[in-house]
Structures are given as C-alpha cells and as structure tokens.
Amino acid sequence: MITDWRERLAVATRVLVKGADRQARLGREIPPITADEVAEAKQFFPLEKFFIFGHARSGTTLLARLVRVHPEVHCNWQAHFFTRPPTLSAMVADHEIGTWLSRRSNRWNHGRDLSPVVLRAAADFILEREARQLGKRIVGDKSPSSLMDGQAVRLLQAVYPDARLIYIVRDGRDTVLSHRLQNFIDAAQHLSKEDLEIRAAYASQPETFANGKRSLFTEKGLRRAAEGWVRNLVETDTLGKELYAGQYCATRYENLLARPWDEMLKIWAFLGAGIPAEDLREPMLVEMQQNPDAEWQQYKAGEMVQTIRKGKQGAWRNLFTQRDIQIFNEIAGQTLIDWGYEV
After folding, report:
1. Does 147 score more than 70 pLDDT?
2. Cα 64 to Cα 57: distance, rounded to the nearest angstrom
C-alpha cells in the first residue's frame, strides 16, 4: 500500500539495480517467455498454477496447508523456483548453455532462445507430477521470498505471466521476533558472538526477557530485520499489482487467524477453485489447530520456545523493549499504519 510517488520510485530503482546486479552475475540475458510459448506449454502441462510469497515467518506454510484442504487444489513448499539463489534461471545461465539453446543451426528452436521454454517445462513437470497423482487441477508452490524481495516477482513473471500470485503479510514485529527465534534454534552456527551471548542468556533465563526487560536483538540486527520486512512487503506488493494486476492477491496472516473460513473462501475463489462444500470447514479448522513447526521447535529447543506462543499474534508486546519498539517504528512505522497494524 504505497501512497507516495517517491516511495514507488525508490522501489523501482532498487528492483532495477538488483536486476542489473543479478544479470551481471549471470553473464547473459534470458528472455521472458512469450504468450505463444505459454499456450504451447499449457498443452503439455494444463494445470492452473499459483505461487505463495511472503517474508519468512509470515504464515506461508499455514496458508499452503489450508489451501490444499480444497479437493481441487494442491500446494507444496520450498521449491524456491524464484525466491532463493540459485533460482530456476540458473539452469540456463551459463553462456555455453545459452549458445546451445539459441544456436541458429538448431532447427528445434525456431530461431529463438529456448531458455524460457526449458525453465517453464522443468517447473511445470515438478509441480504437476505430484498434483496429477492426487487428482488435483490447480497446483502451487509456497516459498518465502525474503531473500529476493521484489526481484522474485520479476523472475516469476518472466516464466509464469499466466500464474496467480498470493502474498501473505504478517505484523512485522511478530515476523522479525519469530524469525529471531528460528535463527536461535535452527541457525545458531550463523550467529555472531553477541547474538550467541543473547541466545545463551535467553535459554538459561528467559524470564529476564519477559515484559520488555531485556532485548532479544542487537540494535543493528533489529534495524536490519525491520528494513528487510519493509523492503519485502513494499517491493512485492508494488510489483505484484504492477505485473499481475487481477492475478495478484494480498492477504494478512491475522485475518487468516481471525476469520479462517471467510479468508479461505476468498482465496479459493481467487484461484478459480469450485465453491467448497460446508463440510470442508471442519477439516480446515482441524488443520489450523496443528502446528508442525512449533512441535519441531519444541522438540529441538525445549524450554527456549515456551515463552513465545508460536503462530499467535501480538507476541512482540511481551518481548519487545521500549527501545525495540522505538527502533522498529522509526523504520517501519508508516508501513505498519498502511497495513492496519497501527493507527
């Protein structure tokens, strides 16, 4: 929800720079797929495709689990076709591969670089092989996009201009808090010395962090996390609307928790799935009560995670210090307002 033209210009500039940097690393330009090539691909892989993007720890997995409750829809996760290096395009990034796929003497390419067709066929096969076995007609992948931000949308559009894109947003304060805890549990080897000291203190005396007594973050780390949340949200939402228009849908994690049936009805309709029978409500609610990620973290980290209610909204209120709140508002205050998290 960008309201200022300066912010739009800044987003466009950042994405263009990222795209140029990426292209420099790849060493060659990969053309986007054409409408004719999309039509040809659909003759072989006719299932409707969708993709779920979102910042890490924003509820992408929950949404993927709920969306596939519908008998026509399948969704799995973490293919990272467009959201984490090396992306799908790395398959044809090499100069020699490009020369082979575009060589004039190659009569199979009809005078055009076959790279986008190869990328589309590879992704289509991966998506449809599972969905077809399950008898589904709509299939999608969910992959967090916080490593690529808006560039993920551009990469997606170059291969899947006909797909639907769902972007899920969560209160940035809960998002970065959950991501911090995940790093404590699953990525301790990447933490700095100062981060490890905070982690050890939190593991041994979590009560000293309750009610904002002590921060779980370094100031530099919190600033970087807040900036990353804003960048991911602003760039993705801007480019989603620009490149996908009516094929783009943004939803809030908090709405999914508060009104799951109503939100899922909207999302299933957006995907073109048939109107679900009322008897789907119960299995959907049962799916909501499960939290495999929380169970895994409880198994791996034990008492470290007990002070945070996994998947719930507002956990930041108990663990952000006043300084944390000040820093986050300084960076992301307007974005929180734009998305209804503050007034």
Report:
1. yes
2. 13
